[in-house]
Hints:
The structure holds 2 protein chains of 2 kinds.
Chain A: H1 26-51, H2 53-59
Chain B: H1 2-43, H2 48-76, H3 82-99, H4 101-108, H5 118-139, H6 148-151, H7 156-167, H8 170-201, H9 206-213, H10 215-234, H11 238-257, H12 267-276, H13 281-288, H14 295-318
Amino acid sequence: xxxxxxxxxxxxxxxxxxxxxxxxxxxxxxxxxxxxxxxxxxxxxxxxxxxxxxxxxxxxxxxxxx
Amino acid sequence: xxxxxxxxxxxxxxxxxxxxxxxxxxxxxxxxxxxxxxxxxxxxxxxxxxxxxxxxxxxxxxxxxxxxxxxxxxxxxxxxxxxxxxxxxxxxxxxxxxxxxxxxxxxxxxxxxxxxxxxxxxxxxxxxxxxxxxxxxxxxxxxxxxxxxxxxxxxxxxxxxxxxxxxxxxxxxxxxxxxxxxxxxxxxxxxxxxxxxxxxxxxxxxxxxxxxxxxxxxxxxxxxxxxxxxxxxxxxxxxxxxxxxxxxxxxxxxxxxxxxxxxxxxxxxxxxxxxxxxxxxxxxxxxxxxxxxxxxxxxxxxxxxxxxxxxxxxxxxxx
Lengths: 66, 319
């Protein structure tokens, strides 16, 4: 795996080591999970106007924007 | 109209990538989540103007979600699990798209036992978002990007530099275009006109066609983490990518040429979805072919190229 992440095509001066851990750390997994949960949540709310189409049409007059 | 939405989305994803690289996830992600929740609270005001405004604000905040999740996976989790976690991220997103609307429907259903007004539902969404933002604020590691030495002061040149690095690397283009092309058979093909093809071409009932097509996202939910895990396990990207693409091709040919009923029910659509999980592999490759200090921008560029490929191809395919 490590062989494949040598940035070959980028003539970039090596900056300080990124500090990416070698082992899975629970706190970092939780941090990732919260972001992924946000991804779940934003899909759920993005589909919500479509779900409540009838109610929105009723509340906003006869416009189908939603 | 839809096209302009995609353009704004793709450009905003680029901006989010730069923000992540410059200021780190601890400064960026809670703000993105908070913006989305504020959009929900505005929607809850009830008027049509508030609804449209709130929806736009939600969309702006929501851009952080995928770019941010894959940034955090690339930054804080071991490199050998990257494809797995990128796949799991997409898996949660697809699950949100597939099942996220069900609870909403139950809550506002006039015949149901809750029958909440829709404004209350938005208020609830907003509160959930605020909680998520606060939790993320506490949990997210506090560092201001992993490349402080590299970035320097805020200037046009420094802002454009990551893009020069990424777009100057042909590997980035390959990753983006291959990723985009792998999305097309399912997003435009199966989900776009799969149901009407089965209905009109194979003369199955519309209900069967719709439930057959709905197996594709379920295949995604399985395939994204599975193919990522395989790729991490064997330590290679290309065999999984090519293998997935061939299985996808085989499934598409089956869908076209094998009469309905020969293959087990739902199997073709399911296999097609699972094989499409290969489309997430280039998201990991994108980070691996570019230097670590531009990984946020790389995630944004990847989104941009994938959306761009789909956007360019969709009028050609569906015309």
